[in-house]
C-alpha cells in the first residue's frame, strides 16, 4: 500500500482527497480508504429512514470508492458525533457520543497500518479544518497510530494554519471522476453543495501539508 486515506465519515475522502487518490492510482500506486464511522448522524434529506442512514452512507462510500479506483476500503463502526453547529433537518440516530469518546480507534487504525504498511497516511489536520469533533479526533488518532509506520500528510485549506507544501491541480479527467464520486454521496448533498459554495477552487485544486517540507511544490509528494 502506498497511500491510505483515514477519515471519520463517508464523503470526507472525496471532498478532501478525491483528486489525490485518482492521481496516485494513475501513477501506479496502491491506494486505500479507511473510514472510522458509517456517518449515521448525518442528514437523511428524506432519502432513507433515519435508522438506515449508516447503511445507506456506507453504500454511497463504496460506490464513490469504486469510482476513485482504490485497492482497499474498510468502514469501521465507531459512533458518529454531531458537528458543533448541527444543521437543521432530519438526521440519523446519534447517542451524543462520537470519535472523541473512543480512543480505542487509535489502536484500530494502527492494527490496519501494521497489516497494510502504507508509505503515506493522509488525513485531516489537527484542527479538523472546520472543528468537527470527529475530524479533530480522527486526525489525532491517525497521527499517533502512524508513528514509526507511515508518513502523515494533511489535506488543508489554502489559508489555514498549516502551510500548503504541495498543491495538486487536477486534470480534466480527474476532476470529472472526483465530481462523479462526490455525486454518490446523495444523502449529504447539502453538505457537498455548501463545500462547493465556500471553496469551489478546492474541487480542482487540492492542497496538502507534509510536515518537514519547505516551500511550496506543484505536484504530488509521493
Automatic annotation (TrEMBL):
<dbReference type="Pfam" id="PF02585">
    <property type="entry name" value="PIG-L"/>
</dbReference>
<protein>
    <submittedName>
        <fullName>PIG-L family deacetylase</fullName>
    </submittedName>
</protein>
<dbReference type="InterPro" id="IPR024078">
    <property type="entry name" value="LmbE-like_dom_sf"/>
</dbReference>
<feature type="region of interest" description="Disordered">
    <location>
        <begin position="83"/>
        <end position="104"/>
    </location>
</feature>
<dbReference type="GO" id="GO:0016811">
    <property type="term" value="F:hydrolase activity, acting on carbon-nitrogen (but not peptide) bonds, in linear amides"/>
</dbReference>
<dbReference type="InterPro" id="IPR003737">
    <property type="entry name" value="GlcNAc_PI_deacetylase-related"/>
</dbReference>
